[in-house]
Design brief:
By secondary structure, the protein is an alpha+beta fold. It has one domain: Lipocalin (Beta Barrel). The chain is built from four helices and seven strands. Strands 2-1-7-6-5-4-3 form a seven-stranded antiparallel sheet. β3 and β4 form a beta hairpin.
Length: about 160
Amino acid sequence: MKITATLCAMAFLATGGSALAAHGKAGLWRIRSTTAMEMKGVAPSGAHSHTSHMCMSQAEVDADTPPHIDQTATGCQTHVTSATPSALTADLVCDGSLKGQGHMQIVYRGDAHYAGTYSFHGAVEGNDSTMTTSFKGDWLKADCGRVKPYKLRTQ
């Protein structure tokens, strides 16, 4: 299912860029996330954990914006509802191939650690769907090695 893959990608993006913007350090980060998804008409598959590495450039750290989620693929727009030095909350409104709403909360523990949650409820391929993700990020080192930074995209 292409839409299910898109939801998973949204969860991954939500756990990365926005959590680090202006609160992190440039360099290599380890992101650990656990996602559970329920879709009406599809047997629950349980929670899935994933660990990935991402490289944050200094420009991304300085950007102080939530992650860019491909509006063409998802029809979703991100709206920051609150941003403080220690936390960020944002809502997503989806009115394209995905229809529904998402919410993200992130708490920063200095510039080398963060943790948060992401949730989405709406319709995917016409079926009621719910996804929840918990995540945490830890800065590992300034040298990203072979991991390349994401390119910043503007909305």
